[in-house]
Design goal:
Strand content: under 5%
Number of domains: 1
Order of helices and strands: HHHHHHHHHH
Shape: globular
Distance between the termini: 38 Å
CATH topology: MetI-like fold
CATH class: Mainly Alpha
CATH superfamily: MetI-like
Structural class: mainly alpha
Largest sheet: none
């Protein structure tokens, strides 16, 4: 009887955690789906503006460009730090790195955005640019990617590494032939989660990379971009027309779909990694 009561209590406690996100998703679908039409994904984006007639393709492209470039910038650094941690760092260095990465991970993204605004936009004179937003987002996801990579390498059985060293394999051979085959799925999982994380950030790119109108695709790394995150922000803050508000809901649904897609891919990769152990 006591176990039954405990089970019911736990279910009741868990219901809000499941019901609230589900209710938000249903409401988002109700508000966002009616706005899906041919103009939403039109390839004619010679101009970008503040109404319900313009395509969100430039915003999708800008968001993905920021996410992909920031991951490409952060991933080699994360791998390098992880390999140093496993091959050369002593116990104190490993503990210090763990605390440092955890501390950086807990810094609010808004602070990174203000740092990028001060250093890249104003001090270096880059202005609002793809490069500034990419670096700031890379700084945000670097601790997460590094910790994920460290854990991925640590999950490779020590016996494999010891056997490779006993056979006279060099550090580079161990990395490529022993660690890589066992850790690559975990690395990809962390990478897709990092993409989902960057797609969820608004404040950092609002301060460093994005403009609302006048940009469809950047001419260079020092050109601004437009993104789904800031597009939704501006529409929600400034729009007075009901059709424009509906476009904001549709854009939000597109953004949630993108984040969910990358999160699901990461989940499937992690599940497959656990299955094949």
């Amino acid at each position: 009887m006591a176990n039954r009561c405990t089970q019911v209590l736990l279910i009741l406690l868990a219901l809000p955690a499941l019901a609230v996100p589900l209710a938000c998703l249903i409401y988002l679908l109700m508000r966002g789906l009616p706005g899906f039409d041919s103009s939403l994904f039109s390839l004619n984006f010679s101009s970008a503006g503040f109404d319900d007639k313009h395509s969100v393709i430039p915003q999708i492209m800008g968001s993905l460009a920021l996410s992909v470039l920031s991951c490409l910038l952060a991933l080699p650094l994360a791998i390098g730090l992880s390999l140093y941690n496993r091959l050369y760092a002593g116990p104190r260095s490993k503990l210090f790195m763990q605390h440092l990465l955890t501390s950086f991970q807990s810094i609010p993204p808004l602070v990174y955005g203000l740092f990028g605004l001060l250093i890249f936009v104003h001090f270096l004179g880059w202005g609002l640019s793809l490069a500034a937003g990419t670096i700031v987002l890379a700084m945000i996801i670097l601790p997460v990617l590094t910790l994920n990579t460290i854990h991925a390498i640590e999950r490779v059985p020590q016996d494999y590494t010891d056997a490779a060293r006993a056979l006279g394999m060099s550090a580079s051979q161990i990395i490529w032939h022993v660690w890589r085959p066992r850790a690559w799925r975990s690395l990809l999982t962390g990478l897709f989660l990092a993409v989902a994380r960057t797609l969820s950030e608004t404040a950092p790119i609002l301060f460093t990379a994005t403009v609302f109108s006048g940009a469809s695709w950047p001419d260079s790394l020092l050109s601004p971009v437009t993104s789904l995150q800031t597009h939704i922000f501006y529409l929600a803050q400034e729009a007075v027309d009901e059709n424009t508000v509906a476009r904001a809901w549709s854009s939000a649904l597109v953004l949630v779909t993108l984040v969910t897609m990358f999160s699901v891919i990461a989940h499937l990769l992690n599940k497959r990694h656990i299955k094949h152990g």
